[in-house]
Every structure is written in C-alpha cells, then in structure tokens.
Design goal:
The chain is α/β, with parallel strands linked by helices and 249 residues long. The chain is 48% helix and 15% strand. It has a 7-stranded parallel sheet with strand order 3-2-1-4-5-6-7, sandwiched between helices. The structure holds nicotinamide-adenine-dinucleotide.
Length: 249
C-alpha cells in the first residue's frame, strides 16, 4: 500500500531490529518518518540509507526515551519543524534479565525507565499536538512476555504488561478526538535482542511456536502498518499478537 501523504511519524529505537523494519514500512507508506536512536549513529544512518533506496523520507534524531527532559525537547523540535505528528510508534526497549533473587535495583529501574516510563514520556509529548489535530495513531510495542511472564524477566514482563494498561487507558482518554492507541505484542523475533540468547533457549522458544518458525521484524512491522492505516480506523485499545501462535490471547 502506498499512501502518498504529508503525515509525520516518529519511531523510537529505529536504528535496528524491529524499529528499523517499522521505519522502512512507514516510509514505504509515504509517511515522513523521524527515526529516533539513543546510540549507534551508524546503524541509524543505515536505516536512512535503506529507506532512501526505497524512495522513503527518513530523518534521524538522537534522544534517550528514558530521559523526560530530552523527550520533551525532542518532540518540541519535531513539532516546530514538521508542524504535526500523526503517528507515534513506541518501539525502543531493553532487557536486563536476572532472577528476582539476584536482580539489582538498577536492572529493575533501567528496564522500567526505558520500556514503560519512556512510553509514557513519548505518549505525553505527542498528546497535545494530536488532540489539536484531531487525529493520531499511537502504537506501543509490548511483548508476549507481558502476557505469559518469564523466569528471569520480571522487570521486562512488568514493564510490558504495564504498556498494555497504559495503552487501554490512553485509548479511552483520546478516542473522542479520533486518536487510536493500540499495542503490538511480538513473540520470538529474530533481532540483536534475541541473537544473544543461548542456542538451547532459542530451541526451547521455537518449540513453542505452532507456525514453526522464528518471526521477522517485518512480521511485526506489518501489524504496525495496518494499525496506522485507514483500514484500522475503528480499532483502538487492542493488542495484536504477532507470535506464530506461541500465545493466544
Ligand atoms: N526481538 C524480540 O523477540 C522481541 C519480542 C517481543 C518484544 N520485543 C520488543 O520489540 C522492541 C524492539 O526490539 P528489538 O528486538 O528490535 O531490539 P533491539 O535491541 O534490536 O533494538 C532496540 C532498539 O531500541 C533502542 N533503544 C534502547 N533503549 C533506548 C532508549 N533509552 N532510547 C532510545 N532508543 C533506545 C536501541 O538503540 C535499538 O535501536 C522492544 O521494545 C522489545 O522489547 C522484541
């Protein structure tokens, strides 16, 4: 689908993995995409290059979603320059796995600050503009782990489950102004985040996937693409599970 338009999208953590695939998918729809990154400028530039090869419009912007002041400043700049923000995809996320008995408060805090506070900061930063426009599409990337839990990932699961509550509440708050807020919950997707897992863990996860293959970043991006398209204008407060049947919510 190519919808040539003047819509502006912001994707957090777009320098690699699922975020990169989302940036490419949205720029492929004709959106003007701001690709946020925290570190890894080269990777972010590579995302831009890949988009340009597909005639997409992508610019990069460095900020840390866990830093409230930086988020406010960045979105102010984006709105000043682009005059609007139509789509926000909260994709940036980290994992700091440990069993609860051993978990350091830093590990707990870092994950909550990036994966949950970061989503809150970015949602809040676009809300006023979207209300003014009477249009907006917010998509939050949660995880199957937010639904099933996982030993060694209490911090990650808490943050990802928190995103679901935030998504539903915000969907109710903003619906009257034609702003939809949804979540996408990936299962086991092949990215840098999962490549570090031991082979045994990968095999165990794959064994739980009825479709019998690992997901790709594009599988997730396709769901995001649908949720921001006009075809999804009557869908809000929902979670789309992209997990090969690993969990059926
Ligand atoms: N890969 C999977 O199997 C899987 C499964 C379920 C959910 N997810 C979620 O999908 C999202 C993307 O995951 P991925 O696998 O592509 O991970 P990844 O580690 O490959 O990429 C994460 C991206 O987020 C960015 N990021 C991290 N902290 C940031 C911060 N504070 N500010 C700005 N950017 C930041 C990173 O720079 C990177 O670009 C995450 O929210 C993750 O939790 C991934």
């Amino acid at each position: 689908m190519t919808e040539k338009n003047n819509k502006v999208a912001v994707v957090t953590g777009g320098s690699r993995g699922i975020g990169r695939a989302i940036v490419l998918a949205l720029s492929g729809m004709g959106l003007d995409v701001v690709c946020n990154y925290r570190s890894g400028k080269d990777a972010a530039q590579e995302t831009v290059r890949l988009a340009e090869n597909l005639s997409g419009r992508v610019t990069v912007m460095k900020f840390d979603v866990a830093d409230h002041g930086s988020v406010k400043k960045a979105f102010k700049e984006i709105i000043a320059e682009k005059k609007r923000i139509d789509v926000l995809v909260n994709n940036a996320g980290i994992a700091r796995d440990n069993l609860i008995a051993m978990m350091k408060s830093d590990q707990w805090r870092d994950v909550l600050e990036t994966n949950l506070y970061g989503v809150f900061y970015c949602c809040q930063a676009v809300t006023r503009q979207m209300l003014k426009q009477r249009y907006g599409r917010i998509v939050n990337i949660t995880s199957v782990i937010g639904f099933t839990g996982n030993a060694g990932q209490a911090n990650y699961a808490a943050a990802k489950a928190g995103i679901v509550g935030l998504t539903r509440s915000l969907a109710k708050e903003l619906a009257s102004r034609n702003i939809t807020v949804n979540a996408v919950a990936p299962g086991y997707i092949e990215t840098d985040m999962t490549s570090e897992l031991p082979d045994a863990a990968k095999e165990a996860m794959l064994a739980q996937v009825p479709l019998g293959r690992v997901g790709t970043p594009e599988d997730v991006a396709n769901a995001v693409k649908f949720l921001v398209s006009d075809d999804a204008s009557y869908i809000t407060g929902q979670v789309i599970h992209v997990n090969g049947g690993m969990f059926m919510g």
